């Protein structure tokens, strides 16, 4: 019986976090209330406070959820044999988000940008999302033997975030397609594959 209760509780909490992830991406943190999250998750508003005492608590849970998914996604790229193949696959994943990115922007970039305007610990908490990407990309470039791996990692992440911003600004997923092709050629050049 206790396992069943915990499973149901976990399910409600997970639904709340998934709803918050979606709403924060589509509307932004500032335009999303706990009541909005409860309604989207189909959970009574009182239950929200059982899991999250404040809106900041659910924001932290959203950041943690994004970080977990990001780490898992990057880990899945290990199936590619070479660092260049892993980097290329990483860039290709960006295109898959094209329509959503064109409509709402990058979920991580917009969250970092919005929370970056605050003057509290959530600014630093959100920066982990970019840090995970940078650390992973740096490791790939180092595995390629690049002594400028740090600079290359920043360039890659900045290019992806810039492409996401432009795709969102112009509501055009084709911007992502064009920029990711350019990045794929750049990675091949850096690896000496062309």
From TrEMBL:
The keyword DNA-binding applies. It holds the Pfam family TetR_N. InterPro entries: DNA-bd_HTH_TetR-type_CS (IPR023772), Homeodomain-like_sf (IPR009057), HTH_TetR (IPR001647), Tet_transcr_reg_TetR-rel_C_sf (IPR036271). Residues 10-70 form the HTH tetR-type domain. SUPFAM superfamilies: Homeodomain-like, Tetracyclin repressor-like, C-terminal domain. Keywords: DNA-binding, Transcription, Transcription regulation. Residues 33-52 bind DNA. This is TetR/AcrR family transcriptional regulator.
